[in-house]
Structures are given as structure tokens and as C-alpha cells.
Design a protein that fits this description.
Length: 352
Amino acid sequence: MFAAATKSFVKQVGDGGRLVPVPSLSEADKYQPLSLVVKKKRCFLFPRYKFTSTPFTLKDILLGDREISAGISSYQLLNYEDESDVSLYGRRGNHIVNDVGINVTGSDSIAVKASFGVVTKHEVEVSTLLKEITTRKINFDHSLIRQSRSSRKAILCVVMESIRTTRQCSLSVHAGIRGEAMRFHFMDEQNPKGRDKAIVFPAHTTIAFSVFELFIYLDGAFDLCVTSVSKGGFEREETATFALLYRLRNLLFERNRRVMDAISRSQLYLDDLFSDYYDKPLSMSDISLKEGTHIRVNLLNHNIPKGPCILCGMGNFKRETVYGCFQCSVDGQKYVRLHAVPCFDIWHKRMK
């Protein structure tokens, strides 16, 4: 009966699907802000998840003894009174009958009355909590962490807000026959015992809550999944390996892009040099033919092997040559390798 009333409350209040009804009156005190619950999918036939309470809070699974400083704010939400008819032939009616154990002989409907009065909302200061958890780590030796980690279906969640009653509340159920002009035709003479049920529960009872899922990394760091897009769980070894390979692939792509850009720039520079060389008259550019200039030599004749040209062979494309100049020196080397045309003349033109 309590579960049926909390489900009806959540359905009417809404909150975009974030609110979860408390399933049992005996566990209502375990759904307080910063408490931990386990979220599990029932099976592939049921899309909804099942939330199971735990006796632990977020602080219990963290390393260190420091308390969590995030505050909890509260305010009045609404005044809730509800009366509704439920058909015995529906799923909700069957659930109430099984839960309450009411006598439904000769009845086709159940009247449910829930009087919660003024309810209050208590929620964690999310921004403060997010700042604090950046320096905290998960204790993997905690029993709840070990058990949740071994199950791929279990997701640890933190209760971020709870909705509570402020006074003593009552729930009542009555079985009867649905009438046309009024809700029920009560058959007092033939009404067997057990047709009415009522329960009273104390003030400050939690009737609904909402959670943020936890995503826990291999190094103990964790994130609060503050949106429905992000999903909680445990980082797996294969997930971490895939993420590392993905980052390495991106780094390789970036490196190759930079190399190609550098090659492109060097090629443009050489093209400018060569075009500047070829665009000028021979008398102005062929310095090696002038009197007193440096002389082209075949380095093989001096037992010097073929190697990259100092002007156009220093990039990834190793343009090699057997020619050079003994009158020039670079980095302590008593000669430089230069293609006969046009690198020899371009080099000496720049040196001049």
C-alpha cells in the first residue's frame, strides 16, 4: 500500500522522470541525501531499473576520515492529498491486493486515499559537492565497492535529494463496487471483515528521492553523472586500454599533420628559391661561371660519398648529390654538398 501511494505521488508530481518512489516503508530512512543506493536493471524485458538501499553513505567509501562539507538545503514543496479508484483487473490493483492483503470478495475496485499533507524537499548543494570530490578517491577495499565492481549490472548512485513528510500521515484502502453516480456502493450488511485497511506512519518519512550515478575510474577518482547523457559504472581494463589507444591514435594523427605542414612549408620555400633563380637572367644568377667564384667539384673524386644536398636535401625527402664545394664549410665540415644546378648557384648567391 505504501509503495502504491509513493508511486502515485511520483507520477503526479513528475519532475521529468528523475524522482524515484520509495519502495518500502521499512527502508524509507535509508534514502537520505548522500546515502548510497545500487541501481540494477531487472532484465531485458523490463526497461525500468530497480534501486536497492544500502547502509552506507558517500563518505564511507572514500579514502580518509574527512567529512563531506557539502550542505543540504530544504524547502516546502507542496501539500499532497490524493483519492483515487484502482481497478482490481489492472496491474496496480493486483499489486495493492497482494501488498495489503485486503479482502476483495464481491468487489471490482479499490479506493485508495493518501494524506501526506505538506511535504518538503531536501537536496545536496551540487556545486559544493563537485568541487570537493575532485580531491577525493574511492576506497576499493570497501565491501560495497568490491561487490558492486564484480557485477557488471550494478551501478552505484548517490541520493541527491529526498522528499519527506512533515507530519503523521495516513494511508487507507477500501474494496467495493464501482457505481455510476458515486464512487462505491457500500454493502454494509454484506460487507465481510477485512474490506478496509489503513496504516499510519510518522513524520519525516521519505516518500521519494532522486540520484546521481557514480562513474569510478581505475585510479580511484570518480565523477558524478549530473546529466542523463552520462552513465555511471566502473572503468574496465579494456575500456582504459581502448581510451589509451584512441589518445595515441589522435597524437599520431596530430604529429603526421604537423610533419606534412612542415614539409609543405619547406617545399614552398624551395619553390620560391628556385623560381627566383630561374626568373633572373643567367648573367645575374650563375655565379659559378664568374671569375673568382667558388668551383663545383665531384666529391666522389675526393673519396667523399654521395649525400644529401645541404639546400634541398635536409627534409624528409633526402635529395642526394655527388657534387659540392670545397671553398665552403658548415658546422666544422670542410665542404658542402650541393646539386650542380640550381642549388650550387643559389647557395653562393645567398652566401654572397
